[in-house]
Amino acid sequence: MRRRLAISSMGALLGAPALSSWATRAHAQGAAVVLGQSAPFTGPATQLGLQFNLGAQLVFDQVNAAGGVNGRRIELKRLDDGYEPERCVANTRQFVDEGVFALFGYVGTPTSLAALPLATEARIPLFAPFTGAQALREPFNRYAIHVRASYFDETAAIVRQITSIGGKRVAVFYQNDAYGKTGLEGVQRALQTLSLETVALGTVERNTTDVAQAVKDIMASRPEAIVQIGAYKACATFIRLARQQNHSGNFYNVSFVGTQALQDELGAVARGVVVSQVMPFPYAAATPVSGEYLAALKDKRGVSPNYSGMEGFVGAKVFVEALRLAGRAANREAFIDAIGKMRNLNLGGFPLDFGPQKHTGSRFVELTLLTEDGKVRR
Asked: DSSP assignment, residue 128?
């Protein structure tokens, strides 16, 4: 009773706004840092959300076991959006209402684009979304913070590779939404710098594998290389059908396809499939951060290393570093300010560079090759 009276008296003396500010500071100093992740945990893109979440949780579990960041535990809540923007919006509104510290690891371009206006209005960071879409990066948004390179970076690397070995006839198979169209634009921009253009286009609707018409349209143009901007099930279906029609050229995918999931879908048909990567190689300790990831996975039965998991792992490590820099009483604005001070950060052999007006940390891209025996080669 005395404690209630004391708080009541404080409210009368300070006024409601001051009491609210006092409560916020008390919360910041001791409470858990709660993050909200909306991602596909069911449906055709399940592995993307699941593996990203598992990779991030490896870091947060380690940090929490050691006492948290500046004495604060990190809690990652997740909601399933099935890779559908409308469900993502509902999830984001729920997170905003719950007062999460940040939105973390959203998966996909259409979903992240749907969430960004809500995050901006609520002044909640949208941190490390699993997408390279330019529309999330330009114009600059203080509340959008990217760890990975962009799809323009990836498609430029792919086009350089195709043309360096003499390829000129390039077709694009893309998902008919903001993600696919961003990738298509990236390919076309890169080709235009070489006075080339796409020879054919084919589309697939999100969360479907109805690719027969796209295969027909693209195969008729006799392409030397096919760039795919889609999720793993649709891309795998396209590849199998094209191989059945004796297409012998390479297929090129951007990182969002889900490398391991695509490999698992294709099996022996994976030969000649190239995937651009924006994260450190996760299958061997090629960098210190890769070694950390593999060590953290040792006791996780049934979980194999993969690029989606590595992206979650790296995103979580960057988040932890920014939270540490923001200090014991960090709020959202202090956290974002800390991001802007993370210049020339070496995250275990993975370089990152942020700034006050630079919220994309990396432009790293490398190409990997899938093999018929289930391996991923650099």
From this structure: S
CB 226 within 8 A of CB 183: no
**Distance (Å, rounded) from C-alpha 141 to C-alpha 120?**
8
Q: Hey, what domains does the chain have and what are their CATH numbers?
A: 31-149+287-352 (3.40.50.2300), 151-277 (3.40.50.2300)
| Cα torsion through 277, 213, 271, 278, rounded to 10 | 0
Q: What is the pLDDT of residues 239-275, one digit of tens each?
A: 999 999 999 999 999 999 999 999 999 999 999 999 9
Strand, helix or coil at 282?
coil
Alpha-helical segments (H) within the chain:
2-14, 16-30, 46-65, 85-98, 109-122, 151-164, 178-192, 212-219, 232-244, 259-266, 288-297, 307-326, 332-340
Strand partners, 72: 69
Measured distance CA(368)–CA(63) in Å, rounded: 31
Q: Please give the Cα distance from 9 to 131 (Å, whole number).
A: 50
Structure tokens at 35: 């993050």
For residues 321 and 212, what is the distance between their CA atoms, to the nearest angstrom?
A: 47
Q: Is 283 helix (H, G, I), strand (E, B) or coil?
A: coil
H-type helices in 126-177, by residue range?
151-164
Q: What is the pTM of this model?
A: 0.91
Measured at the alpha carbon of residue 113, what is the angle toward residues 130 and 77, in degrees to the nearest 5?
A: 55
What gap in Å lies between CA 254 and CA 202, rounded to an integer? 16
pLDDT beneath 70: ranges in the chain: 1-30
Q: How many residues does the chain have?
A: 378
The answer to whether 370 touches 264, Cβ cutoff 8 Å, is no
